Amino acid sequence: MTDIRTLGEFIVEKQNDFPHASGELSSLLGSIKLAAKIVNREINKAGLADITGSVGKENVQGEEQQKLDLYANDKFKAALEARDQVCGIASEEEDQAVSFNRQVNRDAKYVVLMDPLDGSSNIDVNVSVGTIFSIYRRISPVGSPATDADFLQPGHLQVAAGYVIYGSSTMLVYTTGNGVHGFTYDPSLGVFCLSHENMQIPEDGHIYSINEGNYIRFPLGIKKYLKYCQECVPQDNRPYTSRYIGSLVADFHRNLLKGGIYLYPSTATYPNGKLRLLYECNPMALLIEQAGGRATDGQQRILDLIPTELHQRVPFFVGSTNMVNKVEAFLHESDE
């Protein structure tokens, strides 16, 4: 027990890794930690309480909202507004960015973008889901309401990003641009304890994660890459293993630990891709690069993309460096 380091203790210990304001980061992550505990408690009631299923409405992207989508969104929004570090949030479940009205919030330096409950359709069948968050330093004047420009910043300007995975155990994983660190929730103590310090993804992997049910709609380069993954070439450790959960956080987390690639290309149905640049791709891209991997839209680095709208979608390829390089090569070859 003497070796346990909590999330709060670790942030203080590493305060030099966050030159902007270590105390502010600790408080901001504290609000995310609190909301994650509350959402975790509700997720653990799935099947016992009336918290699963659809609410009968769609979000701005035209996707059916689940009860827990709205619950998680409300809890994270309330927790962030209650602190003095956040002037506004943008969420996958909100049509527009939300600017907090208290003067103490308008004086805050940061905005948070989030997917409150990634993979929420899996709740009904007891499969891992998660929360994704991204933190930027605002660019609008301090003291004024947050503006869309505060949220439409390229990913390389993130000051922190992370996710919470609600699975066999609950983990919070984050980066401030100085490595990736994971904390496992101990429900008996009510704290997140350091369990994975300086996480690194293997340069090569043997897992590919993609919804192969969409194969007929994939670009030619992706079809060729999948055939490459399935070929029997023992000296290259092929065929690779296919693993797809349908929750980005869960698929990403497994590949981060074991090595692999997650792919969500453009399709005939979603010609610009399906995943959101601001809520999903940017934070995961910062994490994977800090862990030694790569993230691309097939043409360029995700963190260099300039957002043009809050709910912008992009193709997404993220994971072990050599695997991302290989899928890019197949895409470029097919474009020639």
Automatic annotation (TrEMBL):
InterPro entries per UniProt: FBPase_C_dom, FBPase_class-1, FBPase_N, FBPtase, Fructose_bisphosphatase_AS
Catalytic activity of the protein: beta-D-fructose 1,6-bisphosphate + H2O = beta-D-fructose 6-phosphate + phosphate
Pfam families per record: FBPase (PF00316), FBPase_C (PF18913)
Residues annotated for substrate binding in this entry: D118, G119, S120, S121, N211, Y244, Y262, L263, Y264, K274
Cofactor binding: number and manner: Binds 2 magnesium ions per subunit.
Binding locations of Mg(2+) 2: D115, D118, E280
GO cellular component, one term: cytosol
Keywords linked to the UniProt accession: Carbohydrate metabolism, Cytoplasm, Hydrolase, Magnesium, Metal-binding
Keyword Disulfide bond: no
Domain spans labelled Fructose-1-6-bisphosphatase class I N-terminal: 6-197
Family annotation (NCBIfam families): PRK09293.1-1 (NF006778), PRK09293.1-3 (NF006779)
Protein name: Fructose-1,6-bisphosphatase class 1
Gene field: fbp
